[in-house]
Amino acid sequence: MAARQPARPLAVVALVFALALVAGARRRRGAPLLGFAETVRVSAATTTMTSRGPLVPFNSSDWRLQKMTHLSSLATLNSTLHLFTTYLAGSLTDCPSDLGCSVRRAKFGVRFGTHSGALQFLAAPLFDDLGEADGWIAYFRELHGDMRNFDAFMHNKVVLYARDLATYAGPLIADGIPLMLRSSVDADGADVLHLGLQVEGVVFELVGAAGDMPGARAPAWSADECPAAHALPFTLAYLSDLVGLADDADDDFALYANEPLLAVTLGMTQHGVTSAGAAARYEHAAVLTGASHNVTHASATCVVVDMGWESQPGVAIRFVDNAAAPSGSRSLADYDAYVRRDHEAFLYDEDGEQNPDGWDRYLDQHLGIWYSGGEASCQARASALRVLLADVPYAERQQPDAHLFYAGYDGPFALEYQFEHCDADRADAPAECGCTGNNNEDTWYNLTGDACWAMGDDWCE
Ligand SMILES: *[C@@H]1O[C@H](CO)[C@@H](O)[C@H](O)[C@H]1NC(C)=O
Ligand SMILES: *[C@@H]1O[C@H](CO)[C@@H](O)[C@H](O)[C@H]1NC(C)=O
Ligand SMILES: *[C@@H]1O[C@H](CO)[C@@H](O)[C@H](O)[C@H]1NC(C)=O
Ligand SMILES: *[C@@H]1O[C@H](CO)[C@@H](O)[C@H](O)[C@H]1NC(C)=O
Fold it and tell me: Where is the secretion signal located (predicted)?
């Protein structure tokens, strides 16, 4: 493996933008790629300059983690939904949301800390892709198989805390759903039980106090599985208290038959989690949204980076590069490279200019973070983001509820920045449309003279 570089400590990260990087400057593909450090000078100052002037300093106030979306294929979305509604999500119904033109979404409510959020699977076979996205999903599904053997892609996992683990685990075990059982010890010394199942090649792992299931026998995570990547980022005691602090006024919670699950770790693989490409993601999230990140583990074969927000307690975003675990005939780097090729193919125009009106399937594989601050703060952040994204393939959409940027950073997951109270000075950005490969309502209008299929209000809740 290539030598790893430590991430820059965030304490010194504040960015001063070179004047050349005024909003709207666009990188040509094929033009020499500036290194991140050359593009953006890192200084000890705590002021972020944009074309709109200084913005000092952004914190995580008014930012919330809203959702995590994984890709799905149309043929398997219904069984995914069934698995969720039967075992994990209480009383939700078995109906996929129809976004028009064979785009379907399965949406599951969970809690991020004290507020509700969503885990989504999206099947959008029409959206632009170099043709292998469904193949990757099938690859992960086959590799994980019956969950007997650990593989490196299993770090793509959502960890769900249950205050009473047996309530959820009982039916899974009774029905013989293949589970990977492991144990760990939290920072208080309490015994933790992990039960991982696979959902379309993604691992969903229930965790809770081992004492909830006295009969369960589970080995500790082995060295090759990188125990640090599975360690709970918060203690069981803290998570148990967090369930109690939930905002009962939030209607979504009333839908659960059982106590809701807390999504405590949102895990993603990436080869080179501390590379320059990955650093752009951490630094943009830091500057714009007040996110912090730490390299929580770094050995010769496994590196773990946790990212999170002060305004979003109880959730860790975890990026893992595990070179010790097997990954079958494809590597973590292969996956990153495929996603990169998809972004490169569809998010630049024929002249090599960034094309934020384009789209590719992997933009739908993302974390969504929502900014609800007032209009002036919103515009300031949105224009700062456009400057930051000068070297990143991205898409921009104007939706009725928010103005959206989907940033295709290196690695298989994008970040969706959602601005509720402003249009980012681009009210004429296209709306989304599941009927065109580029997810673009203007394209649909030009083709048909009609508005795109109206998105129904049928979110299966
Ligand atoms: C975050 O910044 C806003 C100004 O943008 C300020 O009003 C607020 O007090 C800050 N919050 C914290 C926790 O520092
Ligand atoms: C999935 O379920 C919907 C109804 O909820 C049904 O219309 C559709 O045909 C199903 N798709 C597949 C591939 O089974
Ligand atoms: C990173 O470490 C700092 C200092 O200990 C801490 O304040 C912050 O919450 C940590 N962030 C994450 C995401 O773990
Ligand atoms: C739609 O057609 C108009 C007028 O020809 C053109 O300016 C615009 O670029 C087209 N938009 C798309 C997305 O094709």
Answer: 1-25
Topology of the domain comprising 61-326: 2,3-Dihydroxybiphenyl 1,2-Dioxygenase; domain 1 (3.10.180)
Residue 275 corresponds to which tokens in the numbers above? 């590379």
For ligand 1, what atom is nearest to the CA of residue 290? Answer: 1
- Whose structure tokens read 């009774």? 174
What distance in Å separates the CA atoms of residue 415 and residue 309, rounded to the nearest whole number?
A: 14
CA distances from 31 to 328, 350, 353 (A): 35, 14, 10
| Residue 24 vs residues 279, 338, 390, 398: alpha-carbon distances, Å | 22, 27, 8, 17
How far apart are alpha carbons 1 and 312 in whole angstroms? 34
User: Around Cβ 147, how many Cβ atoms within 10 Å?
Assistant: 17
Ligand 2 center from residue 108 Cα (angstroms): 17
For residue 104, the CA-to-ligand 2 centroid distance in Å is 10
Cα 102–chain centre separation: 23
Separation CA 68–CA 118 (nearest Å): 7
Largest CA distance in the chain: 64
- Give backbone dihedrals phi and psi of 332, rounded to 5 degrees, phi first: -60, -40
pLDDT tens digits along 181-233: 999 999 999 999 999 999 999 999 999 999 999 989 999 999 999 999 999 99
Q: Give the residue, by CA position, lying nearest to ligand 2 atom 4.
A: 95
The answer to whether 204 and 156 have CB atoms below 8 angstroms apart is no
pLDDT at residue 295 greater than cutoff 80: yes
Per-residue pLDDT tens over the stretch 55-71: 446 889 999 999 999 99
CA dihedral 454, 459, 460, 461 (to 10 degrees): -140
CB 278 within 8 A of CB 411: yes
Q: How far apart are CA 297 and CA 271, in angstroms?
A: 15
Q: What is the CA radius of gyration of the chain?
A: 21
Ligand 4 center to residue 447 CA distance, Å?
9
Q: How confident is the model over 267-281, as pLDDT tens digits? A: 999 999 999 889 999
pLDDT digits (tens, 9 = 90+) for 333-381: 999 999 999 999 999 999 999 999 999 999 999 999 999 999 999 999 9
Distance CA 196, CA 182 (A): 8
Per DSSP (E only), the strands in 311-354 are 316-322
Taking the model in full, what pTM does it have? 0.88
Distance CA 193, CA 214 (A): 10
What Cα–Cα distance (Å) separates residue 259 from each residue in 160, 164, 240, 244?
Answer: 12, 8, 11, 10
For a ligand 2 pocket test, name from 78, 79, 97 the mutation site with the most ligand atoms within 8 angstroms of its C-beta: 78
